């Protein structure tokens, strides 16, 4: 394994870092159960990665069913509480410090069924525009819209998300 080709070629560095303070509120609410913080979007990182914090409430089960992505990996790092993570084979209750890496094509899912709040980081590489998918979910929940199976499949396919067929 070697370093990738250089992306920055000037002789001196530049001032270009971005700080996001801990007290910054969520960028998106999905109903009353999930707050999504866009820590570093694919657009911000020039497509290198996307990093999001998911804060899930205790009020009810939340999270996607088993699925996979064709173009990106997804990683989960639990910050607090208990998040049930699915690795395509089994569900595991993960707690602070636990980490799950899912390569492209790997079936996975997550949920908070613990009855207590939980928080995790979600990392996509490369940095796909996941915000549009999260916003679509928020709109569906906010309007209490019910999608037919075909509509879900079309939405998922637009955002590189495919249901698991195990």
Q: Could you tell me how far the N terminus lies from the C terminus, measured between alpha carbons in angstroms?
A: 33 Å
Please count the helical segments.
Answer: 2
Which CATH class? Mainly Beta
CATH-assigned homologous superfamily: Jelly Rolls
The CATH topology is given as Jelly Rolls
Number of strands: 11
Overall tally of structural domains: 1
CATH architecture: Sandwich
Task: Let me know the average pLDDT.
Answer: 94
Rough outline:
globular
SS content category:
alpha+beta
The largest sheet, given as strand count, sense and whether it forms a barrel, is: 6 strands, antiparallel
Structure description:
The chain is α+β, with helices and mostly antiparallel strands. The chain has a single domain, classed as Jelly Rolls (Sandwich), CATH 2.60.120.10. Helix content is 14%, strand content 33%. The chain has two helices and eleven strands; from the N terminus they run E-E-E-E-E-E-E-E-E-E-H-H-E. Strands 1-2-3-10-5-8 form a six-stranded antiparallel beta sheet, covered by helices on one side. It has a three-stranded antiparallel beta sheet with strand order 7-6-9, with no helix packed on it. The chain has a two-stranded antiparallel ribbon with strand order 4-11. Strand 6 and strand 7 form a beta hairpin. The radius of gyration is 17 Å and the shape is globular. The relative contact order is 0.21. The mean pLDDT is 94.
